[in-house]
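Reopening this ticket.

The earlier resolution said the output was attached, but the attachment link was broken on my side. Pasting everything inline this time so it's all in one place.
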Amino acid sequence: MATYDTLGVTYAQTRRPDPRIAAQIHAALGDATNVVNVGAGAGSYEPPQTALAVEPSQVMISQRPAGAAPAVQAVAECLPLCDNAAEAVMALLTVHHWADLVAGIRELRRVARRRIVILTWDQHIFRERFWLVRDYVPEAAAYDDTRAVPVDQLIDLLGGGRQEPVLGPHDCIDGFGAAYWRRPHAYLDPRVRAGISMLAQTGDDTLTRGLTRLADDLRDGRWHSRYAELLTLEAIDVGYRIIVTDH
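Inline output:
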C-alpha cells in the first residue's frame, strides 16, 4: 500500500485549511492551553496553542509551514510522550490510516489530560450522499469500506463522547474527499485526486471508467441536470464528523 511519502507530495497545495472547518475544530478543542496533533500531516487546522505535531511521513513534515509547531516523526500507536502530556490531543482524518486502531486510541487517551478531538467520517452516510462515489467511482467507496472506522466504534474505544456533523461548504478550500461536491470538474484534475487518499490509493487505472463518464456527463450537461438541486445549496452533510471526548 502506498504511504504519504508518495501520496502526500501535493498536500501543501491542495489541502489548505478551510476557515469554517477550522473554527469548528478549534471550538471543539475548547480552552486547552496546549495541544498535540497526531497524524498531523502538513499542519492543517493546528491552533496557535499546538505544542507538538506527530507525523510518520517525513514528506508531510517537510511541507509544514515556517513557524508551525515542532514536529516529531512517529506513529500514533507509539507516541513519544509521557502520560498526560497535553491538555488536548487532536487527530484529524487520520485514524483510518493507523495500523493498529486500538493501540492508537489507547495512546491518545494516555497522552491527553482533558480532551480528545477526532475528525473522521461516517462511511454509510458518505456512500449514500456523495454523488461521486455513489454514481461514478464506487471502487473508491469499496476501498474506503476496508479502512473506514465506524463512528460508534471510535466512541466506544474512547470510552464515550459526543459527535457533531461537519458540513462541507460549496467553496471549501481544503481539498479532502467530498470538498468539491459542487465543483465536479475538480475531480478530473490529477493534482486534486493526488491529495485525496481514497482516490489516490484506489488509483487512476481503476477509476478511469468512472472519471471518463463524469467528463462526458459534464461536457453534455447531464451532470448539471441530474444534480441541479446541489447547485442551490451552500453546504451539505456527507458524513464528516467531529468526535469530542473528555476525561
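Reporter confirms the inline version is readable. DSSP finds 13 helices and nine strands in the chain. The first helix runs from residue 4 to 7.
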